[in-house]
């Protein structure tokens, strides 16, 4: 068979050209489709990027607004560089340079010199320890002669070996909180002064009694000395009596002075039964004058950590309220009972009266400041009592008596765990203070 070479020579290149154009065409179509997809994707990611950017911007804006609205200064400390950065409102608190600076140098420059060493020492201890949260209170040097009390709370991030990496935290201005605390203290003192006024009769009686006894004993002593051979034994007894009466009188003066003082809460071991007895001693004369039987029933209770003067203020106010409520009631017997008990790991002190009772809708309201049902009442006694009881970790409440007239106002204070494990039998010691 003869091969038509001329035909091949013609057809082969044409076929190759045709095949190449097919392949190129296919590649072109495919590439266009892919670039279209890519372009679409690019568009989508661009708009996503725009969205994310807008979200980020509005989030930053929100954070800025929050910072402006809040009084707190936010700070960030880098342990590696030692630099401290803070939010723009830092200038309101202290005279700090506008740029980040070394934290220790800033502490030296901005913290009041009375607090400086303490803060430095406590911060160094914290860094060396393993804790994550640092809390402290100190005073910053403000503009001019101003002093700004602040509270700092920072979270420290450490590496696996416990080495500090960075701290993020906030400084809060405590000026208002301090002023409120000061006002509350002044208010409590005013209430104590009012209480003193009410119990003056009792105090006078309490001081008068030992003074009278001292006079009697002194006169008897002088009479004995007129004898040729005065009995040394009798003279000793007389002198011991004089000493005891003098101690009693000065104790009353001490208690009254303590009530008059403006002071911070001082925690010590307190026997609540002793505090109750002293409060009843101060008020029994007033109760007697009003024809009210004031009784004290003391259960066997453990001592607690607290401030005896503040707790006495609470009890005096509860008894004072009970006496006021009972005086209103003219029918039936007038009684106010003070009771201490050990109940469910707590000490409960109740003041129960046979008075007019409390309207059910006011059982909570009477603990609010300036809520008074009396013509001359300040309406502060119970709100101060609630604050004091709360500061001792307890709570106070009022209820109307289920059986019989009147109301009972009680407060409960927690007992330390080690003390509460010891059993306390509830034997009652009853003291009558009406005759
Ligand atoms: N045992 C009670 N029985 C009836 N009402 C009571 C009793 N205890 C308190 N209240 C009511 O609660 C009110 C508030 O008492 P609170 O001790 O706070 O103020 P106050 O006695 O009016 O004034 P002060 O500040 O001088 O103590 C009283 O005015 C009284 O109306
Ligand atoms: Mg009162």
From TrEMBL:
The lineage of its organism: Bacteria, Pseudomonadati, Pseudomonadota, Gammaproteobacteria, Steroidobacterales. Keywords: ATP-binding, Kinase, Membrane, Nucleotide-binding, Phosphoprotein, Transferase, Transmembrane, Transmembrane helix, Two-component regulatory system. Residues 202-417 form the Histidine kinase domain. Gene3D superfamilies: 1.10.287.130, Histidine kinase-like ATPase, C-terminal domain, PAS domain. This is histidine kinase. The chain crosses the membrane at residues 6-29. It comes from the Bacteria. It catalyses: ATP + protein L-histidine = ADP + protein N-phospho-L-histidine. PROSITE patterns: HIS_KIN. Its EC number is 2.7.13.3. It is an enzyme of class 2 (transferase).
């Amino acid at each position: 068979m003869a091969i038509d070479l001329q035909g091949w020579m013609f057809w082969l290149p044409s076929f190759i050209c045709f095949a190449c154009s097919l392949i190129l065409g296919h590649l072109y179509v495919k590439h266009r489709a892919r670039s279209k997809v890519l372009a679409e994707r690019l568009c989508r990611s661009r708009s996503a990027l725009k969205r994310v950017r807008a979200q980020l911007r509005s989030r930053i804006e929100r954070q800025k607004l929050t910072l402006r609205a809040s009084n707190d200064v936010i700070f960030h400390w880098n342990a590696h560089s030692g630099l401290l950065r803070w939010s723009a409102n830092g200038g309101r608190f202290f005279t700090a340079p506008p740029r980040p600076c070394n934290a220790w140098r800033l502490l030296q420059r901005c913290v009041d010199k009375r607090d400086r060493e303490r803060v430095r020492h406590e911060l160094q201890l914290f860094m060396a320890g393993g804790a994550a949260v640092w809390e402290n209170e100190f005073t910053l040097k403000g503009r001019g002669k101003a002093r700004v009390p602040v509270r700092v709370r920072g979270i420290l991030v450490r590496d696996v070996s416990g080495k500090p990496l960075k701290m993020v935290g906030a400084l809060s201005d405590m000026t208002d909180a301090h002023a409120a605390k000061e006002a509350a203290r002044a208010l409590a003192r005013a209430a104590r002064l009012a209480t003193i006024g009410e119990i003056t009769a009792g105090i006078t009686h309490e001081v008068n009694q030992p003074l009278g006894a001292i006079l009697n004993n002194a006169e008897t002593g002088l009479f004995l000395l007129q004898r040729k051979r005065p009995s040394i034994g009798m003279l000793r007894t007389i002198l011991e009596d004089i000493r005891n009466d003098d101690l009693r009188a000065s104790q009353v003066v001490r208690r009254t002075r303590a009530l008059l003082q403006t002071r911070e809460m001082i925690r010590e071991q307190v026997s609540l039964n002793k505090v109750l007895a002293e409060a009843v001693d101060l008020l029994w004369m007033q109760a007697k004058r009003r024809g009210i039987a004031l009784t004290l029933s003391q259960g066997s209770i453990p001592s607690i950590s607290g401030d005896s003067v503040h707790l006495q203020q609470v009890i005096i106010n509860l008894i004072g309220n009970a006496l006021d409520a009972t005086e209103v009631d003219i029918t039936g017997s007038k009684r106010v009972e003070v009771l201490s008990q050990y109940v469910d790991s707590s000490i409960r002190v109740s003041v129960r009266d046979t008075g007019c009772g409390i309207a059910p809708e006011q059982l909570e309201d009477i603990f609010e400041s300036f809520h008074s049902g009396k013509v001359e009442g300040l309406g502060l006694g119970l709100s101060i009592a609630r604050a004091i009881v709360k500061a001792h970790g307890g709570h106070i409440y009022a209820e109307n008596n289920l059986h019989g007239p009147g109301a009972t106002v009680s407060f409960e204070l927690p007992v330390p765990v080690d003390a509460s494990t010891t059993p306390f039998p509830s034997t009652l010691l009853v003291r009558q203070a009406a005759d």
